[in-house]
Design brief:
alpha/beta
């Protein structure tokens, strides 16, 4: 892959997002590290150095995304990593629907908003990669997970979005996939055994698939798994 590709990673100021940005940066990409907090994004970019660029971005705010489009120019790789899990231990019949709404706004509509902003340019240029960071809780083969209903529903819907975008972009040179990184040791899951660096390698692999790579699939590490 040419080293001139530009990759945008949302939620990139810490944890898994920062680790993915570091992986892509090490592979020669110009990396845009997006975060709601401009200072946090700048500190993360400084840690990587080189072609790492901070980007103030709130995926739930259309005006913020519109400003990002004007600032970034062409983006070749989009990693929709920004996400929240706010309802662990709650039940579908009792979870606060305002919490569900906010979860959907970030995990589903945030990724959808980013795809609408950057995917058409990829299609016009005839090359692009979109990776939606999903979860095993979203799989009908293994879940959905009733103990985190809002999160599970949002990631299941994200998987559906992946399939639809992949179908829309079939034959254009753009590949759109979801990936289940497994349980990762982050602020969301501090008890997980897998480090962000371990999980990030597989996400970076999905972001740098060859032109004959799959599109519209659910990945677990380097393997395609059932939806």
């Amino acid at each position: 892959m040419p080293p001139s590709r530009t990759a945008l990673v949302t939620g990139a100021n810490r944890g898994l997002g920062l680790a993915v940005a570091a992986q892509l940066h090490a592979r020669g990409h110009r990396v845009l590290l997006a975060a709601r907090d401009e200072r946090a994004a700048a500190e993360a970019a400084d840690r990587l150095g080189g072609q790492a660029v901070p980007l103030a971005l709130d995926v739930t705010d259309q005006e913020s995304v519109d400003r990002a489009v004007k600032y970034t120019g062409a983006v070749d790789v989009l990693i929709n990593n920004a996400g929240v899990q706010l309802d662990w231990g709650e039940s579908p019949s009792a979870v606060d629907l305002d919490r569900v709404r906010h979860t959907l706004e970030v995990n589903l509509l945030g990724a959808w908003r980013m795809a609408q902003a950057f995917l058409p340019g990829m299609v016009d240029r005839g090359w692009g990669r979109v990776v939606n960071v999903s979860s095993g809780a979203a799989s009908f083969a293994y879940g959905p997970a009733a103990q985190c209903p809002a999160y599970s529903a949002s990631k299941t819907a994200l998987n559906a979005l992946t399939v639809m975008l992949a179908k829309e972009t079939e034959g254009t040179g753009v590949l759109v996939n979801s990936i289940n990184p497994g349980m990762v040791r982050t602020r969301m899951r501090p008890d997980a055994e897998q480090s962000p660096q371990e999980a990030a390698r597989h996400i970076a692999d999905a972001a740098t698939l060859p032109d004959d790579g799959p599109s519209g699939v659910f990945l677990r590490r380097d393997t395609t798994i059932p939806w």
